[in-house]
Amino acid sequence: MRKSTLFFLSLGILAVLAAAAWTHAAYQRVQGQADLQERADMVKQLDLTDLCLFTEARYTRHPTQADLHSPFQDHPMSLEHFPSGSLLAPRKGIGDR
Amino acid sequence: MGTWFERQRNIIDFTLSSLVRRKGKNLSLLLVYTLLVFLLASVMFFTHALRKEASLVLQGAPEMVVQRMAAGRHELMPGRYLNAISGIRGVSAVRGRLWGYYYDAFTSANYTLLVPGSDAPVPGYISIGSGIARSRLTAPGDLISFRRYDGEPMVLTVQEVLSSGSELVSSDLILISEQDFRKLFGMASGMFTDIVLTVRNAKEVATAAGKVQKLLPDTRPILKSEILRTYDTIFDWRSGIIVVILSSAVLAFIIFAWDKASGLSAEERKEIGILKALGWETSDVLLMKFWEGAAVSLTSFLAGVLFAYVHVFFTQVVLFEPVLKGWSTLYPSFRLVPFISPYQVATLFFLTVVPYTVATIVPSWRAATIDPDSVMRS
Amino acid sequence: MIELRDIRKIFNAGKPHALTAVDGVSLIVNDRAVTVLQGPSGSGKTTLLSVVGCMSRPTEGRILLGGREITSLPERFLTEVRRTTFGFIFQQFNLVKGISALENVMLPAYPLGEHHASLKKRARALLDLFGILPRESSKAEWLSGGEAQRTAICRALINDPQIIIADEPTAHLDTKLSHEFMDIVGRLKSEQKTVIIASHDPLVYGSTVVDRVIMMRDGRIEAAGQ
């Protein structure tokens, strides 16, 4: 087989897979609507304010409820010891009031 | 048209033969390139899906949450504050929330305990999130023993496990009755964790917040818009680890491009000279160089993006787990809905494929215009 | 028929180290004949060959190919002429390393977009003609001297050119292979091709196949033999 044929074939396969992924994503978006709605309803019903992503510390579990002091609750000089703390930016407007 | 296509194929044949000649180097180049795209695309997919999830799901979050602060720490809210706030014009509904954290020594996990505003479990019973059920291997009917604020044990029965579909908001939740909550934490009746309120006119929220603060200076209002904006910047490029990943990737790309852009080796130059002497035009040589760059970058891009898609949406971002999990023992199942931004994918394409391809063509420009005569006398 | 009128080729013109490689050469090369440019190194043979074969432009003078002036043709057209009319056999063979003999032979025709299967067939026929078909898949660097030379000849012939140009073809060959080469030249002549060779090897210019020997020295023709 010619090298260029092999190349186009591989690219073709990758492209087909990409199209399959795209279709899968579109399908999943439809399928996931019910679960999405369930989560939204639960948020409304329970007055939740955050997604449950990082359960390490209070301010990582509820970043929207945290204040500037939360990470330093333990000690004023306390360094960040939760990895997820480095993934979250502080809440917007946190210094305003 | 037929000849044009044949011409491309012929040139690609030669380009691939050329690449195969340095098989080891080019294979590792391909691999690393794919890995980089995979990393970037994984972060991109995960972040976008999560942000979209938050923006949709948190639409039902309370319009305003009011917290009380004392000495920089979160303080409990007395009932009279509730009354004060309900008196504010424009506020339509006020409710004191009861929620808190419980550290479970058994699983070394942090749970969030919450008293629902309506349909709370009856005293003696709790509903637990599926993350808790997973880590404790608990089923409805089982008992969980808690340690009260005064050291005494308190046993509660699991009446229900919250659905796994709601994990992203409820994985660590325990829904409990008000009575049990106050007994567990020793919180006097009339005290609340914080206050949630609804404003009659949505446009008046900021004004209402101002009124609350004026009325109760030791409180801090948090608006729903702020809640939503927090998640808009999750995994923002400025956050610690993301900066490290991004800069490593950028650095790696620069190294690749530099290797290509720093000019051709004598061998490569000679080869181009031979091609010119054989009758290849400058455009043919440049086309060859284009395909050399494009072959590697196109393949890497497609493969990297595909692997990233599988990684994020099929394996629940398994490779990032150590970072996302951190020290926590309770870890939600990141079954995200595949929201993908075509704009982001296109940007990634232009940032990865184009510079590399250009870096392959440009240094060859000079050599491609070489006078074939020099080959005769070499 | 190739006609050269007063060709001059000066390298680094205007600079202190300017070199006049070819200094006023006028020549007519006949079709279907074997012409040899003989002379010591530095005599301008290679330069003259490269000018004749449209590989470089003369500083002064005119070239006519089959009566048509090609001296000042734009680059693209010159390349076109070179590709279709001439086949080159370089002194060092200059095969592309790392690819097979077959691919080397097909290389000059790649940009023309010819149908791959027919091109391959033609290339294999050529390799077969010169007895090296069994080596078609061998990488260029693994070919012996004689095999490499024959591959270079096949490559020169792939576009079926009218004129073959060879620069010191026997420089890296032993006597036996040199004789073989001259046999091939004879065969090419019998196929109505024009052959121009630059060589200082007596085996070449003394061969019976050769129709005309032109002696060169210091960029000029000393004797344009018959």
What's this entry about, in short?
The complex is a heterotrimer of chains A (97), B (378) and C (226). In chain B, helix 1 packs across helix 11 (282-313). Chain B has 378 residues and is an alpha+beta fold.
Draw up the topology in text.
The complex is a heterotrimer of chains A (97), B (378) and C (226).
Chain A: H1 3-31, H2 33-46, H3 58-61
Chain B: H1 2-21, H2 23-57, E1 64-70, E2 73-75, E3 77-78, H3 79-86, E4 91-104, E5 109-115, E6 125-128, H4 130-136, E7 143-147, E8 153-161, H5 167-170, E9 173-176, H6 178-185, E10 191-192, E11 194-199, H7 205-215, E12 219-223, H8 224-232, H9 240-261, H10 266-277, H11 282-313, H12 321-325, H13 342-361, H14 364-368, H15 373-376
Parallel strand pairs in B: 5-9, 6-8
Antiparallel strand pairs in B: 1-2, 1-11, 1-12, 3-10, 4-5, 4-11, 6-9, 7-8
Helix pairs in contact in B: 1-11, 2-9, 2-11, 2-13, 9-13, 11-13
Chain C: E1 2-11, E2 19-29, E3 34-38, H1 45-52, E4 60-65, E5 68-69, H2 75-85, E6 86-89, H3 101-106, H4 116-129, H5 145-157, E7 163-167, H6 175-190, E8 194-199, H7 202-205, E9 212-217, E10 220-224
Q: How does this model look, in words?
A:
Chain A has 97 residues and is mainly alpha-helical. Chain A has a domain at 33-89. Helices cover 48% and strands 0% of the residues of chain A. With 378 residues, chain B is an alpha+beta fold. In chain B, the strands form two sheets. In chain B, strands 1, 2, 4, 5, 6, 7, 8, 9, 11 and 12 form a ten-stranded mixed sheet that branches. Chain C is of the alpha/beta class. The longest helix of chain C has 16 residues, at 175-190. The two termini of chain C are 16 Å apart. The chains are: A mainly alpha (97), B alpha+beta (378), C alpha/beta (226). Chains A and B meet through helix 1, helix 2 and helix 3 of A and helix 1, helix 2, strand 1, strand 4 and strand 5 of B.
